[in-house]
UniProtKB/TrEMBL annotation:
The EC number(s) this enzyme carries: 1.-.-.-
Domain of life: Bacteria
Matches recorded under PANTHER family: QUINONE OXIDOREDUCTASE-LIKE PROTEIN 2, SHORT-CHAIN DEHYDROGENASE/REDUCTASE
Species of provenance: Rhodococcus opacus (Nocardia opaca)
Protein name: NADPH:quinone oxidoreductase family protein
SUPFAM superfamilies linked: GroES-like, NAD(P)-binding Rossmann-fold domains
SMART domains in alphabetical order: PKS_ER
All copies of domain Enoyl reductase (ER), residue ranges: 11-325
One GO MF term attached to the UniProt entry: oxidoreductase activity
InterPro entries, alphabetized: ADH-like_C, ADH-like_N, ER, GroES-like_sf, NAD(P)-bd_dom_sf, Quin_OxRdtase/zeta-crystal_CS, Zn-ADH-like_protein
Keyword vocabulary terms for this entry: Oxidoreductase
Length: 332
């Protein structure tokens, strides 16, 4: 089979190489899928650079999030059968930017018929993270104000749609007019171009001085510190990641005097700590997708030969929405 392989660490455009190899055999509890679509995520870029908390041995094929048809199952598989169209996480080193990928049955879920292959490949990581962060942790309520940073990215765009589906008023923060237009298209009530405006002032004006009830922060660093200037009384800051490159230090005395909570979301842990909650979340997301309340927006669909450039664009912050490899062959 053909696959994109990382043989040394560095920028994706430099280190992702097309190779030919054997189709892997599924082991116990694993399924083999023919990849229909593979969604690019920022952790894919970080793994290429060797800067993610998960550091697979070299060589490996990136692409953690896929939609595919099950073509073989290993021993002790009860959640999937040959012919099923599924979505979920791949099992490294056999990631999704290939013709075939391996998946553990525990992170394999039915793909909703309401979504095409590219959309279905995007329904897992970003939307699950958003649902757990906003609902299970922050307990977002109808009528509350949600502030979403990096609102044009994969995680942020999912949070906008989930916030609107929950009945919240959503403020999205982006960098640049193209990303601002995309956040508006997703349904954000107010969009702040951080290159032109101070989001702290906009949030205070929008909420008549109250501040945001929930802040969803995949950026960290100074963005987190400035967010504490516009968090509401009894507000909740959900720490999703540190895409800005700086891991901030929280001033707990400030959280005390303003009565707000700081919540960390490492969604991947739920797959081992509480897989039943992940299953229930998937069912809820499928219901929302079937009703049209959430609609994964794929801004760029590339063929298999476009994977290195697509990953590099994602790593350079030049993409909006989701970038997905649709498996329609090399060069076609």
């Amino acid at each position: 089979m053909k696959s994109w392989s990382v043989t040394q660490l560095g920028e994706p455009i430099d280190v992702v190489q097309l190779v030919e190899g054997d189709v892997p055999e599924p082991g116990a509890g694993q399924v083999l899928v023919r990849v229909l679509a593979g969604a690019a995520n920022f952790p894919d870029v970080l793994m290429c650079r060797g800067k993610y908390q998960v550091r697979p041995d070299l060589p490996f094929t990136p692409g953690r999030e896929v939609c595919g048809d099950v073509v073989a199952v290993g021993p002790d598989v009860a959640r999937a059968a040959v012919g099923d169209r599924v979505l979920g996480l791949t099992t490294l080193p056999y990631g999704g930017f290939a013709e075939y990928a391996l998946m553990d049955q525990s992170t394999t879920h039915p793909a909703p018929a309401s979504l095409d292959d590219a959309q279905a490949s995007c329904l897992f990581i970003g939307y699950q993270t958003g649902w757990f962060g906003l609902h299970r942790l922050a307990r977002i309520q109808e009528g509350e104000t949600l502030l979403v940073h990096a609102a044009a990215g994969g995680v942020g765009s999912a949070a906008i749609q989930l916030g609107k589906a929950a009945g919240a008023r959503v403020v999205g923060v982006v960098g640049g007019e193209e990303k601002a237009a995309y956040a508006r298209q997703l349904g954000a009530d107010v969009v702040v171009d951080r290159r032109q405006e101070d989001f702290v002032g906009v949030v205070k004006e929008f909420t008549e001085g109250r501040g945001a009830d929930v802040i969803y922060d995949p950026v960290g660093g100074d963005v987190y510190h400035r967010s504490t200037k516009c968090i509401a009384f009894e507000g909740r800051i959900v720490v999703v990641g540190f895409a800005g490159g700086e891991i901030q230090t929280a001033a707990l005395n400030h959280a005390l005097v303003k009565n707000y909570s700081i919540l960390g979301i490492h969604w991947g842990l739920y797959n081992t700590k509480n897989p039943g909650a992940v299953d229930r979340c998937h069912q809820e997301l499928c219901t929302l997708a079937d009703s049209g309340a959430i609609d994964p927006f794929v801004s760029q669909r590339v063929s298999m030969d476009g994977v290195p450039a697509a990953l590099q664009s994602l790593g350079d912050g030049k993409t909006v929405g989701r970038v997905v490899m649709e498996h329609n062959g090399i060069g076609r």
